[in-house]
Amino acid sequence: METQQFRDRRPDALGDLRVLPDEILCAILELLSPPDLARLACVSSVMYVLCNEEPLWMNQCLKVGGLLEYKGSWKKATLHRTKWTIDQLLLNHGDVAFRISQRSSKKITMKFKDYVSYMKVQHDEDPLYVFDDKFGEAAPALLEDYNVPHLFQEDFFDVLDHDQRPSFRWLIIGPERSGASWHVDPALTSAWNTLLSGQKRWALYPPGRVPAGVTVHVNEEDGDVNIESPTSLQWWLDIYPQLADHDKPLECTQLPGETIFVPSGWWHCVLNLETTIAITQNFVNTSNFEFVCLDMAPGHHHKGVCRAGLLAVQDKGFEDVESIASLETNSLNYPDMTRKEKRLKHVELGKEPSRYGSSWHAKDEFSEAYNNLWNQNFSYDIDFLSTFLEEERDHYNSIWSASNSIGQREMREWLHKLWIAKPARRQLIWKGAQLALNVDRWYACMLEICACHNLPSPMDDEKLPVGTGSNPVFLVSDYVIKIYAEGGLESAIHGLGTELEFYNLLHKAKSPLIDHVPEILASGILVYESGRYRTFRWEGKGVPDVIVNCNLKGGCIEDCFPFGVWSKIQFLLKKSAAASFTRIWPYIVTKRCKGNIFAHLRDTLSDDDVLHLASFLGDQLRNLHLLPLPHFRHTIHLDVNNLSLARTFNILVGSSKISATNPSAKAVSEGFTIPPEWELIIAALDDNDGSCNVCGSPTWIHSDIMDDNIHMEPCPPMHCFGEDAPDASVIANGKLDSSNGERRLRKWHPTHILDFSDLSIGEPLLKRMFDSIRSNVSNYLLK
């Protein structure tokens, strides 16, 4: 019988330190702090043994003066004396309200002293636990001890301001039996979790491997993904014991001072074996950036595949999936659900009750077939996963999933900030932007427009769209290129048509507003056909040949601007269906303004800057309201058949009034002719007495004057004061002499208002026109 050979692990585990005897190593370890010892214990198995010797921790504990409490071991006694223990947190932050695990749709907080009292007396099978992503704001002193481990310090969300980035770090405190049920971290981010006290039991499955007992809900309309799972305790007690060895997860017990790394897309479940305190943080780095961008992209197939593997596409013609009899369509699709969604699960509910609810049983033949399918076909590879994106979906404007960690506007801004801040990573960032925004399509459109109008080629910094709007906008040299994509072709053509009509009117009326809008240099329509892009110039007048066959219903052909504001109002009234995919995009080229947008400057403006900005906007809006309305050729005869409908209308005709008690009501009920300028301007504004007060005259309305549509330039010294400029002798260090009681010098002054494609016409103080009447009177207006 052969004698088993034992290998000395010390040389490999200690590396260059192997030349030192254990006595010297232990002497060195005594010089380290408790946090350093905890980190060093994670280096290797031998170092783990050396760093957990009781005499070492006894010396550490005795170094600290004050009251000593022995906690069963010298290591626990030492750790108990740090800030991050229940007792110390209770002493220092007992009155701080922390967020509690989400057991309801409401936000729940508890003062820490109350939560500790709850922990001591509760007997819940699924106890509440602290899960607070705002602990740094609630207890700033805790951040003094908070550092990201050096292995995880690369984080692409760092380019965002703190209030812009999604939730990313959490304080987690909970008693035994509490924990996190099965889930995949949001946005396919990676995470690290450091345990400060207590013990946690972890279970993990690789991406695409749905754990037994878990159901994945995928909404086919917006890609929203929700997970239905038993509690952590229920899973360990009811499901885990029934799993075959090849079905069991990766598992481990986490001890104090140890850090768990959860890679992108991995399923994990955590159970607290005793009262624990932990810190966790999610991050985006080079290794998972593309997966995060993929997860942000609109659609549902790819989201389901990332989490549930090929179960998510079992009805999409994959031969290997269809060959598995266990994957029956009726077990995955639930037509009675209120939302159009798919349930993807690994097991079915059993019939036998248990003290923790229904028990779960895996079908052996199903489990074996599913595992074979997962092993043979599924790959958590970005090229494989991206094949499930919906190619015909407009990624720039499609419905954004409610489960996304950031919104569409924030996503665009994040990608552009990354592009500027991390030039060494641009190849990777471009790939991510392709997945999330289809940026290669918009870049190709921009290049074709530049070539058509002899504009300079974009520099590297100019290749990504800028801003947070719903239409791709590129800054190329001294030019701004805007591609109208929001809402589909009909909405886009009306956006450009209205903007061109408005600019034409400014010149005709010689309005002073013309000095504060960007100069239009070119406009047209871009078409993709036969594998190439072509441009057709269009100034808004007449119906361009390229869209004649697109079945768009603009204004009358003889009208100067058939897709101007009146046509757009009619389009908005009848619009109901969602925008379809298009390969035709209107565009406009304007002169680039100097300076910066208000959104980027708001925190740097002085009080005087803000007051001047408000005055500027007031002046320009007045100029807007003074503009004449474009001509409208037709008069609609509105037949009002009952007084209740008549009261729904707020028909603005001078100071007239429609009332159920008014003698003129009979005349109204028999028929009423709306003046031309108010044919499409009707709002539901019933008075308490059932009457409809009407007043005023219609005007142009710009309801999209947001912080990114206001442009400002640096204020030259002594220039912004105009005729009231003070003498230079009273100015010092950029401020007016305080003895004069004057305000600070202005740094910025507003120059331009941008984006007039959403212009409409109506009562300037009453903007709820379209939504309130669309369902009630659109049929009357469109007869």
Protein architecture, described:
The protein is of the alpha+beta class and 783 residues long. The chain folds into 6 domains: 71 residues, Monooxygenase; 172 residues, Jelly Rolls; 95 residues, no CATH class; 184 residues, no CATH class; 83 residues, no CATH class; 85 residues, no CATH class. It is 29% helix and 19% strand. The protein has a 5-stranded antiparallel sheet with strand order 3-4-13-6-11, with no helix packed on it. Helix 11 runs parallel beside helix 17 and helix 19 packs antiparallel against helix 20. It is elongated and about 90 Å long. The C terminus is likely disordered.
Topology:
Elements: H1 10-14, H2 22-29, H3 34-40, H4 45-50, H5 54-62, H6 74-80, H7 86-93, E1 97-99, E2 109-111, H8 112-121, E3 130-132, H9 135-138, E4 169-174, E5 179-183, E6 190-197, E7 200-205, E8 215-219, E9 225-228, H10 232-239, E10 250-254, E11 259-262, E12 267-272, E13 276-283, H11 289-296, H12 301-308, H13 319-322, E14 341-345, E15 348-354, E16 357-361, H14 364-377, H15 382-386, H16 408-421, H17 426-437, H18 439-452, E17 473-476, E18 479-483, H19 489-509, E19 520-529, E20 532-537, H20 565-574, E21 584-591, E22 596-597, H21 607-625, E23 637-638, H22 643-648, E24 657-658, H23 665-670, E25 672-673, E26 692-693, E27 699-701, E28 710-714, E29 731-732, E30 735-736, E31 748-753, E32 760-762, H24 770-782
Antiparallel strand pairs: 1-2, 3-4, 4-13, 5-12, 6-11, 6-13, 7-10, 7-12, 8-9, 8-14, 15-16, 17-18, 18-21, 19-20, 19-21, 22-28, 23-25, 24-26, 27-32, 28-31, 29-30
Helix pairs in contact: 5-6, 11-17, 16-17, 19-20, 20-24
